[in-house]
């Protein structure tokens, strides 16, 4: 039996679920995964002791700590010792196998970082017949798969109440009651741990002797400014988490991970934009084709998620976040373990009203001052190494002095988005000769500064939600431009800009709002639109345009799928629109919203599918969300059942004539996660289903 503390507060239910699964005859190998310090080892010790407390017909329980430097000889020696064999002897695989093959055993492997080959060690494989069990802990979801466990149990951080209960226990009532204001500050300190048991325990014990309110105030201040300075952080918490960072293969993925620490605590980071930033920084090579480059970015994100260094939450599969303590670890590493704090200047979301005073701007490589209250930016810092500057989300920002950008020769990423009071840019922005990514989304500029034409290396220009933007004259001079986002630019007259847009020969991604037949004909349905447009809103189209939207004649002559880049379509208030069969040509559509289309009868017309000889095309193969709002005449989405392998949510309101959904009993892969939202119970009650099996699957 292994000595251990009581079960971590909040893990009682997890332990019970784990034990019940382990005792199932069908379970031979079981894995726990989760971030460092979350309580995996404690859980495994509890399981070990449950086996030791009662017989359960197991003859031997073996505990082995594996760690990152997996050594087969050491594992064999540990097992041999547990079996009663002499540790000094170099035991062969056959020796261990001979002693274990006729025994009903439990093997507990703590802290594995790569696949442990049971055959190589000499351990018989657990089966239903022999009744043996192998349980392991790891920080990597990927390792679980390599161990043959497709459905491992994730050990998650504690809920807010569970975290407070644990922290309260570690601090002790004597300290908490020593001053009436301490409990309030204690809750702030506990919140900084974000439910991570390791941090709650270490910091709780550290604070257990602090009985003046000034000490607690100081603790909150330190944790909010540079948490690595807090007692116990740099020797008991961050080094343990750093093992996950050290296990990442190569400088490329490590740089990508550290970059994520520029965002504020608990911030949801858009995957697509994050990958664009990584490409601009040179972490991912630009020389390969776009699809391969982007896929490499998603592979890196996937690796970081599987390593529990980034988190995906709920339905936000297009975004990731960093656990706050992991973020502190990343900032600590970025500062060379606290030795060079000027490398990364990160003061995101901390309420700053001005740019902080930095002693050594020449050492700064990346700066994030996003989500603050900065009203004016002045000065002329000399930043020869600065590559990324985040200034977005400063709602009060009205002015940036021209000289501020004079000495940033290596700046490649500049984010000024969501600065809603910023209505002009200084001419000196043209001095940013290395700039590749400029985000002006959500600002209130009315036109593009003429000086932008000098940014010859600019690849990504984000202008979404700039409702004041009236023209984009000179856009054709940005010859390197690959991404241009213009959704939500409601004042922009595209008719005057179409010719300039067509001159952007390297453009790969375009988002746009369309309100006229001219833009539909000359841009959307021609080559650039079919190859570049990623997101489109078609809204308030005049009556004479309904024909081209119903079924554009240009598509009749096209063979196969041509809107390969189109992922999001919103069509709203377009009169006399009967169907949208052309959506068949958008195989990568993820989001589709159809709203206030009074005369729409069907989304895809089977008759028109025959006209264009597109019978082999199965629509909506990648669709995740479908919104249908106020479509009183629509009778059909598609007349036969479709697979919908990716569909997660369907929102249907005001579609009184829609009597049947295109589902059968095999439609929608993860039906337990699928949600149908509707406005009237009578509609869902009267819905016709393909068969009873389909009805039972979805209701």
Automatic annotation (TrEMBL):
Species whose genome carries this gene: Brassica napus (Rape)
Domain of life: Eukaryota
Keyword set, alphabetical order: ATP-binding, Leucine-rich repeat, Nucleotide-binding, Plant defense, Repeat
GO term, biological process aspect, one: defense response
Residue span, Disease resistance R13L4/SHOC-2-like LRR domain: 385-680
Disease resistance protein winged helix domain: residues covered: 262-330
Protein name per its UniProtKB record: (rape) hypothetical protein
GO MF terms, alphabetically ordered: ADP binding; ATP binding
Alphabetized Gene3D superfamilies for the sequence: Helical domain of apoptotic protease-activating factors (1.10.8.430), P-loop containing nucleotide triphosphate hydrolases (3.40.50.300), Ribonuclease Inhibitor (3.80.10.10), Winged helix-like DNA-binding domain superfamily/Winged helix DNA-binding domain (1.10.10.10)
Family: Belongs to the disease resistance NB-LRR family.
Domain NB-ARC residues, every copy: 11-175
One Pfam family linked to the record: NB-ARC
Entries under InterPro entries matching the protein: Apaf_helical, LRR_dom_sf, LRR_R13L4/SHOC2-like, NB-ARC, P-loop_NTPase, Plant_NBS-LRR, WH-like_DNA-bd_sf, WHD_DRP
């Amino acid at each position: 039996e292994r000595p251990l503390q009581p079960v971590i507060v909040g893990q009682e239910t997890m332990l019970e679920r784990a034990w019940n699964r382990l005792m199932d005859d069908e379970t031979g190998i079981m894995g726990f995964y989760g971030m460092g310090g979350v309580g995996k080892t404690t859980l495994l010790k509890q399981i070990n002791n449950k086996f030791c407390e009662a017989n359960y017909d197991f003859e031997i329980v073996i505990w082995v700590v594996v760690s990152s430097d997996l050594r087969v000889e050491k594992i064999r020696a540990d097992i041999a010792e547990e079996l009663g064999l002499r540790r000094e002897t170099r035991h062969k695989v056959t020796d261990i196998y001979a002693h274990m093959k006729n025994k009903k055993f439990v093997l507990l492997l703590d802290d594995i970082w790569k696949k442990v080959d049971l055959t190589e060690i000499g351990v018989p494989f657990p089966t239903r017949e022999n009744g043996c069990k192998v349980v392991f802990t790891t920080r990597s979801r990927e390792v679980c798969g390599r161990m043959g466990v497709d459905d491992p149990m994730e050990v998650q951080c504690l809920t807010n109440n569970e975290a407070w209960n644990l922290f309260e226990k570690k601090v002790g009532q004597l300290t908490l009651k020593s001053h009436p204001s301490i409990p309030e500050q204690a809750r702030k300190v506990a919140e900084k741990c974000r439910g991570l048991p390791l941090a709650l325990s270490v910091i709780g014990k550290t604070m257990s002797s602090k009985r003046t309110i000034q000490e607690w105030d100081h603790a909150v201040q330190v944790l909010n400014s540079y948490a690595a300075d807090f007692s116990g952080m740099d020797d008991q918490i961050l080094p343990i988490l750093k093992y996950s960072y050290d296990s990442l293969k190569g400088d490329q993925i490590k740089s990508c991970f550290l970059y994520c620490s520029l965002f504020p605590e608990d911030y949801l980071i858009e995957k697509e934009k994050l990958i664009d930033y990584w490409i601009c920084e040179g972490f991912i090579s630009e020389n390969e084709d776009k699809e391969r480059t982007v896929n490499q970015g998603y592979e890196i994100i996937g690796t970081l998620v599987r390593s529990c260094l980034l988190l995906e939450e709920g339905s936000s599969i297009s975004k990731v976040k960093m656990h706050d303590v992991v973020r502190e670890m990343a900032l600590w590493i970025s500062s060379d373990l606290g030795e060079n704090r000027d490398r990364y200047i990160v003061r995101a979301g901390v309420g700053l009203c001005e740019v902080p005073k930095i002693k050594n701007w020449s050492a700064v490589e990346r700066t994030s001052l996003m989500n603050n209250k900065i009203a004016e930016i002045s000065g002329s810092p000399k930043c020869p190494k600065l590559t990324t500057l985040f200034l977005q989300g400063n709602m009060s920002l009205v002015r940036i002095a021209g000289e501020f950008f004079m000495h940033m020769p290596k700046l490649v990423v500049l984010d000024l988005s969501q600065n809603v009071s910023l209505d002009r840019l200084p001419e000196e922005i043209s001095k940013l000769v290395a700039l590749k990514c400029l985000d002006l989304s959500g600002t209130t500029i009315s036109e593009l500064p003429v000086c932008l034409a000098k940014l010859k290396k600019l690849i990504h220009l984000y202008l979404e939600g700039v409702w004041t933007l009236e023209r984009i004259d000179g856009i054709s001079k940005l010859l390197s431009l690959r991404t241009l986002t213009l959704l939500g630019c409601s004042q922009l007259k595209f008719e005057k800009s179409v010719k300039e847009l067509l001159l952007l020969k390297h453009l790969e991604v375009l988002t746009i709002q369309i309100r006229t037949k001219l833009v539909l004909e000359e841009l959307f349905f021609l080559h650039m639109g079919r190859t570049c447009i990623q997101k489109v809103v078609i809204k308030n189209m005049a009556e004479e345009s309904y024909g081209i939207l119903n079924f554009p004649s240009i598509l009749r002559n096209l063979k196969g799928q041509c809107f390969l880049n189109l992922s999001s379509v919103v069509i709203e208030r377009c009169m006399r629109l009967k169907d949208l069969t052309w959506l068949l040509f958008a195989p990568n559509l993820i989001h589709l919203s159809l709203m206030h289309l009074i005369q729409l009868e069907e989304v895809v017309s089977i008759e028109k599918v025959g006209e264009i000889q597109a019978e082999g095309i199965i629509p909506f193969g990648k669709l995740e969300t479908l919104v249908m709002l106020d479509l009183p005449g629509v009778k059909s989405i598609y007349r036969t059942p479709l697979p919908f392998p990716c569909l997660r949510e369907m929102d249907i309101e005001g579609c009184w004539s829609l009597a049947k959904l295109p589902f059968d009993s095999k439609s929608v892969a993860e039906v337990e996660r699928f949600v149908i939202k509707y406005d009237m119970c009578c509609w869902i009650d009267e819905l016709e289903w393909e068969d009873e099996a389909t009805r039972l699957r979805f209701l």
